[in-house]
Amino acid sequence: MDSIKVARELVDRLDAALPQTQCRRCGYEGCLPYAEAIAGGTAINRCPPGGDELIATLANLTGRPAIALDRTCGDPGPLTTASIDEGICIGCTLCIDACPVDAIVGAAKRMHTVLPVLCTGCALCISPCPVDCIAMIPAGRAWSAEDALDARRRYGVRNRRRNEGASASGEAVEAAKQHAAAKRQAAVAAALARARARRASLGASRSKLPLPAKP
Prior knowledge:
This protein is about 50% helix and about 5% strand.
């Protein structure tokens, strides 16, 4: 149990050190999955947003040597934010679904807008857009520790909401299956009852027929 607790504490420290941009450039689904992978032995140099400073921090936390950033994951650079060309946006909501920190607001068939103060610069909204109306532009500011804390919180809220929605959907599907099964059982029972009633009626009719005369 102690070893499990120590491992969990290491994951928490690693996750807290990561920038929480949730950009997946490391090859994982977010900062927490990458933190878990690092605790399991994955390289500490796969986070371009964190750069060399983060690598040094992760090296200190893990006791491993600091190594150069893996440029196959991307290059470090200034913070950018997504910007939607509202004249082209068709309101498909695909970018809203893709945003890991709820930084895009809008509704189906309505114009969408990015909230720059919340955007992590992950660029995950660009690929799903069917009309190429999203571009990354300079944020004009640096990503702060406070930004990371807030993004981490919003990422967690979004994931919990999605998990609850998936659970609710699963429960609805199961309820529908049970309802359909109950209807089938009721239909079969009704059919059997009708068949028994017909047989009983037929038997009663035959019993009333006169007996054949004796020769």
